[in-house]
Design goal:
403 residues, mainly alpha, transmembrane helix, Polysacc_synth, PolySynth_Transporter, transmembrane, membrane
């Protein structure tokens, strides 16, 4: 985290609000199509591997082939969309195309799920840590040699390439199952992952559409102000995300063994995530001004109020991430689409109303309300998902979470 703060600080100060904004504006397109290229399979594959150990190689190999095809198509679509949205901004077109190449690396993310299903996530952490260190050195070198924004866009490719390389090396080192393709498995994965694909696309759309709308309505500088706050608000979430990923296979396995133990483990996970989030949000809210001024400088002073709003949206985002486990295990993935659709509609409508009037602060308010509605309030809309609403409340109140 310390290295990340230093690199982010120096990079933002070097690029300035305009170029920092353009870099994040183009990255918003990449993040949207990263979800497209994953096809929703990432939400179900761990559960499939646990249930069908003998078909692990087939599941991984088939997913890799499907993602290779979807990633290639996504790169082409990104290029066409950006050409249409920003026909005269060649800088945006070039940096977006450069960053889009990283989608080809998403193909090998599939192997991560084999490590997760075997409770060996530490090797994924090692791979990502090495990649982050290399990319940090790359970015610092660019600042030292005063390179242009285009070289910073290449960092996205380098990070994906290094992570993929180490994941593949670890997979063969630990003698992972032989990878193979199956048309029947492909059909089954696409069918099961469909609802999660639509939901994931809607999620990433409404979490990234604010940057795109800010760029179209207000310009690159406002995107830079917003992106600076968003970066700080998300800086700490690797901790709860690591907890969620580690707990996922344990909870899924416990469902097949003991229902009460399964529910208790799930409440414990939610309790941990919620209260870690509350603690982090309070600290960052109180220290928002010195954090922004120390990391970004006076040029980003408008990011302070944006950060105070956005940091509280992270809690609900984590609640949504944890909810995906329950929906998968209970075979209720179809509701995910409805939940996210509510949030997406709210976010887009509020962005259209608030961004022209309040700029980056308006986008932050829209994001917070969208997260609250889609990840928490929406559970009350359907009878079958109301038990999860109660479970989350119980977890917040420390009810039935003792070990």
């Amino acid at each position: 985290m310390g290295l990340s703060l230093i690199v982010t600080s120096l990079m933002a100060r070097y690029l300035g609000t305009q170029n920092f904004g353009l870099l994040n504006y183009s990255l918003a397109y990449i993040l949207i199509f990263t979800t497209v290229s994953k096809l929703g399979i990432d939400s179900i594959i761990v559960n499939e591997i646990i249930k069908k150990r003998e078909d692990t190689g087939k599941l991984i190999g088939t997913t890799i082939c499907l993602r290779l095809l979807s990633s290639t198509l996504s790169i082409s679509l990104i290029f066409l969309i950006v050409r249409y949205m920003d026909p005269h901004d060649y800088t945006v077109q070039i940096i977006t195309f450069i960053q889009s190449i990283s989608l080809l690396m998403v193909v090998f993310d599939t192997i991560e799920f084999w490590f997760q299903s075997n409770l060996q996530s530490k090797y994924i952490v090692i791979s990502k840590s090495i990649a982050f260190t290399i990319v940090s050195v790359w970015r610092l070198s660019l600042i030292f040699f005063e390179k242009s924004i285009y070289y910073f866009a290449v960092a996205t490719i380098i990070e994906g390439l290094v992570i993929s390389l180490f994941i593949v090396v670890f997979y063969f080192k630990f003698k992972g199952p032989k990878i193979r393709f199956s048309f029947l498995t492909a059909k089954d994965l696409l069918s099961q992952g469909f609802y999660f694909f639509i939901a994931g696309l809607l999620i990433v759309a409404y979490t990234q559409i604010d940057k795109i709308m800010l760029g179209q309505i207000m310009g690159g500088t406002t995107v830079g102000i917003y992106a600076a706050a968003m970066t700080i608000s998300s800086l700490w979430v690797f901790i709860p995300n690591a907890i969620i990923q580690s707990a996922r296979p344990v909870i899924m396995i416990s469902k097949t063994e003991n229902e009460q133990f399964y529910l208790k483990k799930y409440r414990q996970l939610y309790c941990s995530i919620i209260w870690i989030g509350i603690g982090a949000s309070i600290c960052i809210t109180l220290l928002s001004k010195p954090i922004i001024l120390l990391i970004y400088g006076n040029e980003f002073i408008e990011s302070i109020n944006v950060l105070i709003i956005l940091i509280w949206s992270r809690i609900f985002s984590l609640i949504g991430t944890t909810r995906a486990i329950w929906l998968t295990v209970e075979d209720l993935g179809r509701f995910q689409v409805s939940f996210v659709a509510f949030g997406a509609i709210v976010n887009i409508v509020l962005n259209l109303i608030l961004i022209p009037r309040y700029g980056a602060i308006g986008a932050a308010i829209a994001t917070l309300l969208a997260e609250v509605i889609s990840t928490f309030i929406a559970l009350l809309f359907f009878k079958k998902t109301r038990p999860l609403f109660k479970l989350i409340i119980d977890a917040f109140l420390f009810k039935d979470v003792k070990i």
